[in-house]
Amino acid sequence: MATETLTLGKALNLGLRRALEQDPKVIIMGEDVGKLGGVFRITDGLQKDFGENRIIDTPLAESGIIGTAVGLAIRGYRPICEIQFDGFVYPAYDQIVSQVAKMHYRSQGKVKLPIVIRIPYGGGIGAVEHHSESPEAYFSHTAGLKVVSCASPQDAYSMIQQSVLSDDPIVFLEPKRRYYEKGPVDVDAPLADAYPLHATRLVRAGRDATVLAYGPMVRTALDAATAAEEDGRDLEVFDLRSLSPLDLRPVYDSVRRTGRCVVVHEAPGNLGLGAELAARITEECFYSLEAPVLRVTGYDTPYPAARVEEDYLPNLDRVLDGVDRTFGW
Asked: Per the confidence metrics, is the pTM higher than 0.85?
């Protein structure tokens, strides 16, 4: 086993490289993904090694990127589309919802669109307007799309490869504030042995309350669990990993034991993933709950200016406050 310590961004780079090596029909397309290697350097070095016909610098036209990918997928390619920043995906929203999500259904299963749409998302980097968004609920709500989000270098490495192999279109959300955080990655393990793409992962066992997070908030939830030990509380933390479809069987088992659940995400609370999670957990675990399922989320405003961004984003104190509230019922 060859385990290396890699940043999440480098793990994505190596995962993309492996996908390109395994299948000549895999191509990467997006703004500045070639010579520059992407604004976050996730595709660094790939055009040099695989050529301009497979790592394609596109015009600044997100709708054109996705529309072209639809045609390529129909012709047997497996395009990976990079949306440079989360706030730039909206011009492509029509293509994603009207074409990418519906083509398989519309053709009665005859047409597959194995497209991966990579989106750096979330706040925490002090970016300007349109460069920090949490659009996951839009895509998770759309039938015909699958939505996943990695939170660790190991998952980044395996999940991007698994997504490329999928015959379903996948929106692949990358927590940009975590690109440079490091962790162990087994680069030689067979992909068949990797954790399933659409499975929730237990990242910290506990007995007193269940905390659910995904993407950039997994690290925040783990930090809160460590801090909660000072108050004698043992928090169980799950990384959902897949937002559509959701895998909630291990969550239900946990909530039935702990009786309490807090959901954490950066996106605004109104009609966010937390509401769906709370509804499903309440339906399945009603008689085990000692308190309502609570949400710790971003506020119902646009992402604010960088200088007040940290007041908007859920942090350790807000997660701990949510846990305290569940013990107040």
From this structure: yes
